[in-house]
Structures are given as C-alpha cells and as structure tokens.
Amino acid sequence: MAAGLNESTPHGLFRRLLRRVIHFLSYHLILSRGKTRIVKAAGFRLKVPSTVFHPRYFLSSERFADFIGTLQLSGKTVVDVGTGSGILALAAARAGAEKVIAVDINPNAAAAAAENARANGLGERVIAVGMNLLSGFQPSPMFDVVISSPPKHAGEPRDLADRGWHAGPNYRDIVALFSQACERLRDGGRIYVMLSSDSDLGLFSSLFKEAGFQAKLASEHSIMIESLIIYELEPTKNELG
Question: 117 with 44: CB under 8 angstroms?
C-alpha cells in the first residue's frame, strides 16, 4: 500500500536522479513534441496536440479513466480539472454523467478536449473551457463530482508543456483547487484526485484538511517506479453544517 497521507518518504540520490532522467526524456520526447498525434486510449480515439499531456505514454490517464468507469455517475454533473486531452471527462460521460465540464489552463488542452468529445460522440454532454482551476465559476454548489489528475511534482515548470508535470514550488499552481472545489460541491458530493507516491503526500494532506475534506484511499496501482494513488475526498461534518 502507499504511504499514508501524513507520511513523507525521502528519496535517495539514485531515485532523485532517476526521476530527473525520466522527466528529461518525457519533456523532450513527449511533452514538448511539435506534432499533433492521434492515439487510442481507454477506448477513445484522441487527438493530442503539442503541449498537451499525452494519455497514451503516461499511464496515469488510462488508470484513472478505468477507475472513473466504476463510479455511479448517472445524472450527475461532473467537472474535470486539468483535463488535458479530455480523456477523464469522456470517461465520466461514458459512465453516465449528465453533464461534464472539462477545464484546463492550457488553451491547447481545452480545444483538444472539445474536439475529442465531438469525435467520440459525447459533444452534447462534455463542454470544454479554458480556465485556471475553478476560478471562473461562481462559488456556489454546482458539481456533484470533481475529478482531477493534477501535476504530480513540485518545481517551476519550464513552459506551458511542462505544466502537465510540474505544479510550481510547493505545488503553488494547484493549492487553491481544494478550497475552490469545496465551495462548488453540492451536498453529498465527492472529489477524486490522483497523486503519485512521489508527490508530497504530507503537503496534500494539509491542503485537504484546510479545505474541509477527509480523505480515504480509493484505488492504488503500482508501476515500476511509483504508485498511482486515487483519493476520495468527502467534506467533513463541519463543512456540511
């Protein structure tokens, strides 16, 4: 099982060097590639333009999409924060969601998600919007489910393409996500967020609690160098009033 949310597991020199090599190769060969590619992932045919997180090469996207397929989303309104190619938003619509809003700060990602929704016959239920987290929505209950697979690593991103990997020092670019989501979540709503065993789980634990959520492990998938961890966040009783 993954380390608990309150635990921090320092990595040795070899692990840190390995992570740097993986990022170097991922950035130059995948994230900053110059061509648009057509791929199949999680049962969808997806167009993935330059700077957009690639759902075929990075296993987290398909694993999360598979998990979303197990949720009871019939008739619900879902928002996918940091949608990338739109794969998670499409998975939510396929799982029965009545309306899915796919948001991303990267305009190339928002455009790709809209196009991919139409191409996969889900354009009537999936809307894509260019937005920084949930800041463009009024702070009132409007979503039944929030899903997000944010950047897994701290550090200053090099450019727009690298924002799919790095979330800024101390995860600066996504710290507001959980408080924003809490303000916009309907009664009985849930958040599902995917992190990595290499993420700062202690910091995320603090962010969850400060925003008024209690977290439990919903799913974990181990790959060669890390574990992909999905947490379910539920508002605490105090937040529910």
Answer: no
Determine contact, residues 170/126, Cβ cutoff 8 Å. Answer: no
H-state helical runs in the chain: 13-26, 59-68, 87-94, 107-119, 177-184, 201-211, 237-240
Contact 79, 147 (CB under 8 A): yes
182-237 pLDDT per residue, tens:
999 999 999 999 999 889 999 999 999 999 999 999 999 987 778 899 999 999 86
Inter-axis angle of helices 201-211 and 177-184, nearest 10: 30
Domains and CATH numbers, the chain: 13-240 (3.40.50.150)
Pairing of strands 185-196, 227-235: antiparallel
What does the pLDDT look like over 125-137, one tens digit per residue? 999 999 999 999 9
Cα 133 to its chain centre, rounded Å, is: 11
DSSP letter string, 164-179: GTB-BGGGGGGTTHHH
What distances in angstroms separate CA 187 from CA 102, 134, 180, 194, one per listed residue? Answer: 21, 18, 15, 22
pTM (2 d.p.): 0.87
